[in-house]
Design brief:
Structural class of chain B: alpha/beta
Helix content of chain A: 40-55%
Distance between the termini of chain B: 49 Å
Strand content of chain A: 5-15%
Number of helices of chain B: 18
Strand content of chain B: 15-25%
Oligomer: heterodimer
Radius of gyration of chain A: 26 Å
Strand order of the largest sheet of chain B: 3-2-4-5-7-6-12
Largest sheet of chain A: 6 strands, parallel
CATH topology of the largest domain in chain A: Rossmann fold
CATH class of the largest domain in chain B: Alpha Beta
Structural class of chain A: alpha/beta
Number of strands of chain A: 8
Helix content of chain B: 25-40%
Number of domains of chain A: 2
Number of strands of chain B: 14
CATH superfamily of the largest domain in chain A: Thiamin diphosphate (ThDP)-binding fold, Pyr/PP domains
């Protein structure tokens, strides 16, 4: 009984919290608090006191709120296409070495993309997804997080892995699914994961990582409550604008808001979900406009401006840790310069000239390069040297990884459960018996330990 | 709409005795008036289960403490009479008290739950650990998986098993596969337990009656558990919460208030993936789990008298990965097998058990009769016809006759 009353009281308190609407006069907030202290409808009140929306004023004008009545949410930028600073309050907070590291991380990913896209075309890996045009969203946001922050990715976030310390060998081990692959050769290429770097392994189903990120953020919050020596941490979760149409997006934002979870949602709005343009994906003002509806502080940034992404993520991280934790939404506008994946020819649904335009006109790597050159910390020679060095690094790791043995065949039965079940042991023995009785039908030599790995 | 149904069901689940006694309530004004859950006047088999006398429940402290698989330290402890929802509540409370990483959440969990399973937990353990979620099954499940992946032990509630389907993607593609895809990183959703009331309740119709266990037994990576009694529910739920594999814990809602027995007050676990032989026998092996075990027991009592046979009754307890050895050993001994479950016969648990029996060389040669499945028909659960749908005592009794006469 008392609990029900207690909880209802809490719910009322939550409803009474004012929405962040700068245009609202403070007197309105006062009235809201007064109204919220008593949920019954007072006679002659100017405000609704239904529990569903206690802050709403009565009106006698029959007027539907139209999306077109609202200006599109503006896009924050720090540096323009020419590398010139447009936010006069901006002060770079990275040392020259750090800026160069960020730049080289983007460059590395774009070079690896070229190598691996071709490698897939030659049939040397089964699949690949490039992230051309979106390097700044990933590297810029990752650079504003701490290593203790937990990250969930969709699949086009190679830059996040690179910036946090994934090596060329780590990338190649996963792409070739060899014995050094964290995923033990089970996942499709580009489904990276790392415990040390605090990045959860990528899974193909879209948007499933979003409510998981909310739950993970809640876990971090509770763990810090239980043990204050744990540093404050947030969860950052990446997704595309297409994935935001999934029910899991709705579930994630609503749960994160109602449970006050310290999670930063980072949407890469690159204009396309495979062949589907955003006009067929949604009719609202992008993804950002939805954040407000869930009661979530939201910003839209220029995703090709690494400084804008970094500044926004830095601030979002601070916000996410305020008031005991809360979600924040960042929508980064960018353009998917590449095909969706190696299984896609995007010129079947968009003009080559459109893509070429984007490549030439606005590219996140070139934009940072121009800024660095303006600062006098980068040059044509340095560019040439970096490109050659990074390409060599990629190709070296490529060759090494391709030569490595594949994981033991036994690995296919492990990690389904914590322990091998009697059934799985039987099935493993059955597979071994088949391999022994039909040796010409299977090639097990490229797998570490050959068929011996199937011994019980 | 949903909430209306819930309160109705919660109310009737609260008073199962009323359902079975309605025929004696003197409100009958015309001879044609029929009430729910009455049984035909001459019925000898399809009588209501008398939970107060069934040998499947421990009516005394001694029988409770003599339960097989109870840890030694519990055998000397005290017991308390609990019904199924109280035993679940006791297990949740024990789990919350013993491990600060345990969280309990779902729709309407904070005030005690629509079936009272989480009563007083929010008050005792705080609103941060026991809380309501928005009405989103996929959200509840994703949230729970994320919390589990970060080392918590979430116990998520799906209000009815019928509403688990929006969460299927999260359960099947995420929870079940996480350890596998994470590989060397060692992360998993192993801390996850999903509780859901399931099964017929007399009038739950299409969306308050389902038992989707076989949809989960098809998914490698999950442990699927269904208790039959309060004592079992506490031990198995604690084992599920502490298991490092994601567990689907299905609670037969008709037993929430109906089944009451002595339950050890200590903290104890019962082993997962281990069946229990409830009654040894020589001629027929009967395999079931959850509520139908009570019908099985009633049918066996009559069949043994009428046919002079001896039936071995096995409770699977964990439906997947299941205790094949226990079942195969029994069938090798008896040569006959009947599988009983409430959910639809097509591709149900019975299909898996029957196939495993005929597939095993040592068991196949011992079979004296075809393996028989007695289960729900291959239809949704219709409101007015529930009593013709689920396996009842008559159908199970007839099954024993058929396998003996073959």
């Amino acid at each position: 009984m008392s609990s029900a009353r207690l909880l209802r009281g809490r719910a009322i308190a939550r409803l009474a919290r004012p929405l962040a609407r700068p245009s609202q006069p403070s007197s309105v907030l006062l009235i809201q608090r007064a109204a919220a202290s008593n949920l019954s409808q007072r006679p002659d009140s100017e405000y609704v006191s239904f529990p569903g929306a206690v802050k709403s004023a009565f009106t006698t004008t029959l007027n539907f709120d139209k999306p077109s009545d609202h200006a599109a949410i503006p896009t924050y930028r720090v540096v323009d296409q020419h590398g010139a600073v447009v936010d006069t309050s901006f002060k770079p907070d990275l040392s020259t070495e750090e800026v160069i590291k960020v730049y080289e991380d983007m460059l590395f990913i774009s070079l690896m993309d070229l190598v691996m896209f071709d490698a897939q075309r030659q049939g040397r890996v089964s699949f690949y997804m490039v992230s051309a045009g979106e390097e700044a969203v990933c590297v810029g946001s990752a650079s504003a997080l701490t290593m203790e922050d937990v990250i969930y990715c969709q699949y086009r976030e190679q830059g996040v892995f690179k910036h946090r310390g994934f090596t060329a060998t780590d990338f190649m081990s996963q792409l070739f699914a060899n014995k050094n692959d964290n995923g033990r050769g089970r996942n499709m290429p580009v489904h990276y994961g790392s415990k040390e770097l605090n990045i959860h392994t990528i899974s193909s189903p879209l948007a499933t990582q979003l409510p998981q990120a909310s739950g993970a953020a809640y876990a971090l919050k509770i763990q810090r409550q239980n043990d204050p020596t744990i540093p404050p941490r947030v969860v950052a979760v990446y997704f595309g604008e297409g994935a935001a149409s999934e029910g899991d997006f709705h579930a994630a934002l609503n749960m994160a808001a109602t449970r006050s979870c310290p999670v930063v949602f980072i949407c890469r709005n690159n204009g396309y979900a495979i062949s589907t343009p955003t006009l067929e994906q949604y009719r609202g003002d992008g993804i950002a406009s939805r954040g407000i509806g869930y009661g979530i502080e939201t910003i839209r940034v220029d995703g090709n401006d690494i400084w804008a992404v970094r500044e926004a993520t830095k601030r979002a991280r601070e916000l996410a840790l305020e008031d005991g934790g809360k979600p924040v939404l960042i929508e980064a506008l960018t353009y998917r310069v590449s095909h969706h994946s190696t299984s896609d020819d995007s010129f079947a649904y968009r003009a080559r000239v459109e893509v070429e335009d984007w490549k030439r006109r606005d590219n996140p790597i070139i934009r940072l390069r121009k800024w660095m050159e303006a600062q006098g910390i980068w040059s044509e020679e340095k560019e040439k040297e970096a490109r050659e060095r990074l390409r060599r690094e990629v190709l070296h790791a490529f060759k090494e990884a391709e030569r490595e043995k594949k994981p033991p065949v036994r690995t296919m039965f492990e990690d389904v459960y914590e322990e091998l079940t009697p059934d799985l042991k039987r099935q493993m023995a059955e597979l071994k018996s088949i391999l022994e009785r039909y040796p010409d039908e299977y090639d097990v030599n490229e797998f570490e330990g050959g068929k011996k790995s199937l011994d019980s | 709409m949903k909430s209306k149904c819930i309160h109705h069901l919660a109310r009737t689940a609260r008073r199962p005795a009323l359902l079975t006694r309605t025929s004696s309530v003197p409100i009958t004004t015309t001879s044609s008036l029929r009430l729910y859950s009455t049984h035909p006047p001459n019925a000898k088999l399809n009588l209501p289960v008398d939970y107060s006398t069934t040998p499947l429940l421990s009516h005394t402290s001694q029988t409770a403490l003599a339960t097989p698989d109870l840890p030694a330290h519990v055998r000397n402890s005290t017991t308390q009479k609990m019904n199924l929802f109280q035993a679940i509540n006791d297990a949740l409370s024990t789990a919350l008290a013993s491990d600060e990483s345990v969280l309990v959440f779902g729709e309407d969990v904070a005030f005690g739950g629509v079936f009272r399973c989480s009563m007083n937990l929010a008050e005792s353990y705080g609103a941060e650990r026991v809380f309501n979620t928005p009405l989103t099954e996929q959200g509840i499940m994703g949230f729970a998986i994320g919390a589990a992946a970060e080392g918590m032990r979430p116990v998520a509630e799906i209000q009815f098993a019928d509403y688990v389907f929006p969460a299927f993607d999260q359960i099947v593609n995420e929870a079940a596969k996480m350890r596998y895809r994470e590989g060397k990183t060692g992360r998993s959703a192993g801390g996850l337990t999903v509780r859901m009331p399931c099964g017929g309740v007399g009038h739950g119709a299409l969306y308050h009656s389902q038992s989707p266990e076989s949809l989960f037994t098809h998914i490698p990576g999950l442990r699927v558990i269904m208790p039959r009694s309060p004592l079992q529910a506490k031990g198995l739920l604690l084992a599920a919460i502490r298991s490092n594999d994601p567990c689907i814990f299905m609670e037969p809602k008709i037993l929430y208030r109906a089944a009451a027995e002595q339950v050890p007050t200590e903290d104890y676990e019962l082993p997962l993936s281990k069946a229990e032989i409830l009654k040894p026998g020589e001629h027929v092996t009967m395999i079931s789990y959850g509520q139908p075990l009570y019908n099985c027991m009633a049918a066996i009592e009559r069949a043994e008298k009428d046919f002079g046979v001896s039936v071995e009754l096995i409770d699977l307890r964990t439906i997947y990965p299941w205790d094949k050895e226990c079942v195969l050993n029994s069938v090798r001994k008896t040569g006959r097998c009947i599988v009983v479950h409430e959910s639809m016969v097509n591709a149900g648990v019975g299909a898996e058990v029957a196939a495993a029996i005929q597939e095993d060389e040592k068991t196949f040669v011992r079979l004296e009769a075809p393996v028989t499945r007695i289960a729900g028909w291959s239809i949704p659960t219709p409101l007015m016809f529930e009593k013709f749908n689920f396996p009842d005592v008559a159908r199970i009794y007839d099954g024993v006759r058929r396998v003996m006469e073959y």
